[in-house]
Automatic annotation (TrEMBL):
This is NADPH-dependent 2,4-dienoyl-CoA reductase, sulfur reductase. SMART domains: RHOD. Transmembrane segments: none annotated. InterPro entries: FAD-bd_OxRdtase, FAD/NAD-bd_sf, FAD/NAD-binding_dom, FAD/NAD-linked_Rdtase_dimer_sf, Pyr_nucl-diS_OxRdtase_dimer, Rhodanese-like_dom, Rhodanese-like_dom_sf. Gene3D superfamilies: FAD/NAD(P)-binding domain, Rhodanese-like domain. Residues 465-553 form the Rhodanese domain. Keywords: FAD, Flavoprotein, Oxidation, Oxidoreductase, Redox-active center. PROSITE patterns: RHODANESE_3. Its cofactor is FAD.
Amino acid sequence: MKIVVIGSVAAGTSVAAKARRNDETVEIVVYEENLDISYSVCGMPYYLGGEVESIEELIPRNPKWFKDRFEIDIHTNHHVTAIHPLVKEIEVYDKNSENGFRETYDKLVLATGSYSLTPPPFNLNTYENVFHVKSMDNTKAIDQYMHNQEIKKVAIVGSGFIGLEMAEQFKQKGLEVSIVELADQIFPKIDADMSYHLKEKLKENNVKLHLADKVESITGDRKAEQLHTNAGEDIPVDLVILAIGVRPNVFLAKDAGIALGDTGAIKVNEHMQTSEEDVYAVGDVAESFNLITKQPSYIPLGSTANKMGRIAGDHLTGGSLSFKGILGTGIFRLFDLTVGFTGLSYREAQQSGFDPVVIHNIKPAHATYVGGKNLLIKAVADRETGRVLGAQIIGPEGVDKRIDVLATAITFGAKSEDLFHLDLAYAPPFSTTKDPVLYTGMVLENARTGQPVITPEELVELQENQKVIQVVDVRSKSAYAKNHVKEAVHIPMPDLRKRAAELDKDKLTVVYCNKGVTSNTAQNLLLNIGFKQVYVLSGGNTNYQYYIKSKEN
């Protein structure tokens, strides 16, 4: 059997390696249109920022390594121009010899990846200082340009993973950085109230932000010298990075009549097989599906590409591996913050037909007496079943292990009450006695079974609509004097039992403390003595003040 793979970054090389591990007799041929293979796209910003010293560290494998280790023939600088499924042939153009030829296959794998978007008025062929950060060729070109030119001012268009990572790295190189983002928030993938913390971190590091804006025109002939935005801003630039997203590279598949999915990527089954017999698709070119909703999903990540490649390589050689879906889990660093997310947001849960309950949990990553710093966790569960649906976490430490624990729990269908029963590792330098994940489960379960929470956004909306509501601050006098929720009355927790008669049992009541622990005690007290509706303010006054500041900015 002869397997031909088109593309050799994460997914394509994973296909080839797994197929060889399973079967020594199969012939494996890979065609790659660029010179480099099996490189780390995710590491590119850190090389350009100087955190990775050598570009060779991002290219750990070459065709000779694959030939020696796996007896796999990888042909670089070879561009596949057409697929002919009926006769099981592809057309290939050798850019070295400038000759074309046909190649036969028994099984074909498309690992053609994705391509970066270039929005108007940008044109890569017109402006020599406008770049994507998608391929190793891009990275080398940016690196060379920065060495040959005096670069002081950089504009980044888009605030996704690459855009924010590039902003961090360029600031650490001492450059002036501006971000232009079409959405009204930084990193639109996460919720606006969580995105606020990213915005503040960028401002703290003197990154200039142009939100809800876009570049309308460019001054400059051969080089972009100034960007002019829809909002009337003029941004001087020496270098421009386009980071507004990618699309699946499906041109070969479309021309060959291979079916695309709802997301525009190639539609595949659980074994990565396409609509065309003996043709597979993996990586950024292939469609995924959401593990919770079972609906088509397109979230191109290197981790998913590697997984898809292994599954296809296994199935091609008689194995039984199958693709189980994704949660869209992601993580990145922004200066001294880490941002992690997995599963569905509150809005996505609603759109998927769930009745979601949402909570905010502010807890230290480990014991404060050994330097633990707070995490902000926003989590979502289904009100009816208790199934955990998603989470977003921001903090200076401990985000990675919590988001991975939550992603694992969601993958196996955990309910909110299950989180509390996880036997997680505890010692003061690493966690708290009730780990933030355990506490998240406690609060979610309480919120859906009779001890409800209300978000700052919901509370403000009620007040703005002049709903009859009483808000009770159970913190200390000094804390209340520093700042408090609008229209809140102050009754410290130690006085609440004897002063509860000052409150109306029939009114909708919201209690809050600094982060949420003491207010849960207050909620229990009031419910136990006959109050009808008592809500805890999600994340307490701390989260409320974050929300108010986000609206002011």
